[in-house]
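It is worth pausing here to work through a concrete case rather than discussing structure prediction in the abstract. The textbook approach is simple: state the sequence, then state the predicted structure, then interpret. We follow exactly that order.
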Amino acid sequence: MTVLGSVKEQPSDHMIVSYKYRFIFIKSKKVAGTSLEIALSKFLGSDDIITPIVPQDEDVRKALGYPGPRNYRVSSLAIAKAVASFRGNGARYLKEIASRGRWPTRFSNHDTASYVKQELGNQIWSDYFKFSIERNPFDKVCSFYFWKMKDGSLAETTSFREFVMSGRAGEASDFDGYSIRQAPAMDRIVRYENLTAELDEVSARLELPEAISDVMRGVRAKAGIRPSRRVSDLYSDETRRMIEVQFAREITYFGYSFPGSDDRVPSTPLQAAG
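Step two, the predicted structure:
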């Protein structure tokens, strides 16, 4: 099993498009997403779209022999046409090349479902199987908090209450990333709480040659961040109400509720990943 390095987290809306297996994956935060990205890469070819992950994780993907980032940048022909037309994104492309010294990207880790649909076109969006992952927000925010403490984004003295009441817990929400016009736009949103079984169902639906969950067991990403303790122990009535407000859409749409007293997340190799 390959363990990914401890690195500073990037914004999490990465994506993968497979033309062979006809699927679109939009990544969410704190749901084993990096491990899943790497696992899905095993099935991808030269024409597929893979957005980059952090360099240390790319090293792991490369060591496993899986393809890395590709086809997410704007082509030179498209840039030339945009610049020559004096319309659209031409000015932005020139600015990125000249002042930032980087090639413009067509897809990035900030893209929403609406943007991806626009770029791929209605036909592909309609025909391809689109999926993402979601997690109980009360649990997700705990994981997000401990990750932010680990990567230095928060001061060491920042308490869980301070983090939640500051509003920063809302950064863990992915609802806008997989939604269009305030409604989830995926064909399947896998529940993190039932990750292995539901990913196996996705594998069967896509007719992949190997179960995604089996491939993921070879990769552990960002494991060991969160102490083993009950989710409910971290919350007060005040912080619970704040999460109920900030994640009202997830709670309403998916029917999530505040965890009970027996709420430790199973620490299987697959669910500990990413």
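Step three, interpretation. The two ends are 14 Å apart (CA to CA). Residues 1-13, 265-269 have pLDDT under 50 and may be disordered.
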